[in-house]
Amino acid sequence: MSKKYEMRVIHTYADAYAVGAKYITTGAKTVPRLREGVDVPFPEQLSDPKWEISLPALENTLRYIMELLHHQCYMLCIGDNDVLMCKLDVQTTAPIFRDILEQPLNNSEINPTQAKNIRETVDKNIDKLRVMQCIVKPFASSSSNTESKTNEYLELIRGLNLPNGVFILNLTDAVILRNDGKMPFTMVTGKTDLGEYNFDKHIPILSISGQRKYLDIPIPNYDDVMFVLKYPQKYAAINNGYVGSKVVKSNPDPSYTTNWDDKKIAKAVFRGGPTGCGYTDETNMRIRLAKMKSRHLDAKLTVKDGNESVDTKAIKFDPKYGLGSMNTHIGASGNFLTMADQSRYKYIIHVDGNVNAYRLLATMLTGSLILRVTSQYTSWVDHMMQHMVHYVPVKADLSDLLDVIRWCERNDDKCKEIAQNGMNFARSILSKKYIQSYIKNTLWSLSEGRPVTILGEMANKTAKKRKSPVVVAVAAAKNKTRKVTKATKDAIKKAKEAAKEQEKAAKEAAKEQEKRAKEEEKRAKEAAKEEEKRAKEAAKEEEKRAKEAAKEQEKLAKAEKKKPKEAVIKATDDEKMTENVVIEDNNKKCGRHEYFNMSRKRCEIKPYTKWEKVKTVEGVFRKIPSDLKDIIGEERFKREYEDAIDVATGEKIKILLVDTKKPK
């Protein structure tokens, strides 16, 4: 019974775990067996103790990918009767990235228009932004549960005898699992701890790019897989590889290998897009390369290896300046060159981009010498190659590039030998049989839990025939020291120096990043202090205003108390109680026995409290005019004067009737 091969899209962790668990807990147990096909050596990441095909490891890995990173990967599930490739598709912005993306832009390397466009793009898509390595872009829409019936990797493994189990295929331009318990994508998150997502066991993660200090197991990349599946004789007819799944027939000539002696252009050529984690010539080596001027160079930028003008709209994180986009003045865009065109140059510069540049092996087939710029990214064939045997290394910052080219001009025979070694190596590797064997034996090794390292005879066959100084290191039970030539020793020495330089550059970059972090922390503290100072000053000002208002209120209250309750009569004894008594209140005049009521603004009969007090031997009396009874009536006089009670003492008012009439 033939196996069934399917594709599926899964959007949630729960669904992914339910599917993957079936391929770990059910089905016939895989029986360890001898590997078939071509013997291949394996990278060191394969032997890491974190890898385990178990339910706890499945839970850990799916949580890490789908809960923490929201990263799009494929879960390869292999059973007795079927092979299921599930796209893990969480199309929302990961919370840890969202917090970073919403921070204000503080970048001197982008202009106001760029800053506005970045802010608008981020704010518009804040719920659906995808972060890969250092690139930020919206998720591609995926509404159905079936993406397509197949893809290149499912086609590659179709019909192979594979072990039962679950594996993660990371087919993106990103490397996702560090070996130190920190977050990946350090240009975005810095060296942030994984916290609860720092698991000790993971389902094996196979990625199309490796990176130093990462555990991802490198496997053949898209260009290599597409080459062996579809383009073994037509690679020169497309744009240095392929664009999606569509062949671009820009050159009908299928041959793009030019013999060394027929290469007429003694220059180093580069054509490629401005990819890479950086958007200035300080941090992006492709941009720096395009800006270099020399008679030894023909280096220009193109977009996606095509004929368009240079793309400057991509939003990305720069290792030095943070979130931004490509500077529009990054160097002139260049005319597109096919692989056949580039094969006429003696030297081709290989510079990594967002991850390792996928066209390394295909470029080696041109027969030109590869000048490979040192990088933190690794390829699936790095452990099978040696510098100065298959390629010539260049420092990561390009500082020795022109010196390397001049050395090549003086050592043409040596360069011819290295170019031939590289071409023969690529020819031995770029075959469907070899790549299928690599994938198959990698999965078997992981499934059995005991990685193997086998001498790759096919990969080194050409080097042996030419008696080159290549020495292939093989991890075996017994290590055997092989005699090396002086050239190899020199090459090893140079490699160590290059590694030291790279380590030094990495340390300097780390120090710079730490310095920026401290400066940012210092600015934040200063801003907090300034805010606290302003708050204290505002509180003091408010307290001062409150005190002034209280004082003003108290002042008004005192002034109110000082106001005379009623008008005071000032008159001589002869003038008292006459019709023409003058009241000291705006010169108002009231009649006999009246006073001016200030609150009511009118003259009224004086109550007893307004009459003058007089002391006698019998006590204190109020002097009341004897004719007042006639004026106000006997009943009122009795109520208000004779029977009145003193409010202060509670006693009856004593009155003394006096005659106040003037003598005639």
UniProtKB/TrEMBL annotation:
Residue ranges of the region described as Disordered: 482-571
Boundaries of every Glycosyl transferase CAP10 domain copy: 161-448
Biased composition (Basic and acidic residues): 487-571
InterPro entries according to UniProt: CAP10 (IPR006598), O-Glucosyltr/Glycosyltrsf_90 (IPR051091)
Keywords in alphabetical order: Transferase
PANTHER family tied to this protein: KDEL LYS-ASP-GLU-LEU CONTAINING - RELATED (PTHR12203), PROTEIN O-GLUCOSYLTRANSFERASE 1 (PTHR12203:SF35)
Protein name: Glycosyl transferase CAP10 domain-containing protein
